[in-house]
Amino acid sequence: MSDADQPFSFRHRFQAPDAEITIREDAPAAVRDAVTMLGYRFGYAPKSLRSLVCEVLLSRPDPGAWSNDNVERDVSRLIDDAPWFRVYDIAEALYADIADRDFTGTKADGFAHQLNAVFREHGVGWEMADGKLIARGSEAFAIASQSAIAEMTRANKPTAAKEVHEALTDISRRPADVTGAIQHAMAALECVAREVTGDNDTLGRLVSKLGVPPPLDTAVTKLWGFASEQGRHIREGREPKFEEAELVVTVASALSVYLLRADRAVGRSRP
Fold it and tell me: Do residues 148 and 262 both lie within one domain?
């Protein structure tokens, strides 16, 4: 499907303002309907769509439903009754199947674009990137985490970059592994701190050597304390919230970028 075959809003890059993210561990009716209708829009007949859905759900179709109308009702039943996370599995399977069958290499991206528009309009905290559904956070979260990986790669810090990638993977699980995301984000920051100071101590003890101006240095200490308690020594009944994990990943990523850029500036100033 070329741009010319896409809907008016896609062709002219119009979209509704992003709704506040309020949905993470759910697939509301708007998402279920969108997955179903996008399947039809991107070339599936009712029976072929039902086959794909049944394959993902490991469920048998209704043996009494064989006419197109009845098969469409069966598809709707299967998707409406599926656990929320299976709906997202179906969306990923559709993307992969569309990509496999499309010699133009454009239809799968069109599917993802239109599905992402539904997520944004309805405040759903997911987005499809390269055929996989990942957590959609604030704009600051996206910029900080992407910048961190880019800066770490540029500075030849593959271990730190891998930790940020693992943090993003954990926060994008269904459901999110919030403690894992916190642990990996702080591990990335600690790795960067060790590299720029040349000291293998823990981050909590390295704060004074990082050159972070006061009183911002105390914020690093408090971040480390929070992450140590919530990401490593979780108290009974006090599992971190998604928003808290998002904040830690965002701040740890931004601090990593700051430290790497400051270290590079110091390196340039050396004789």
Answer: yes
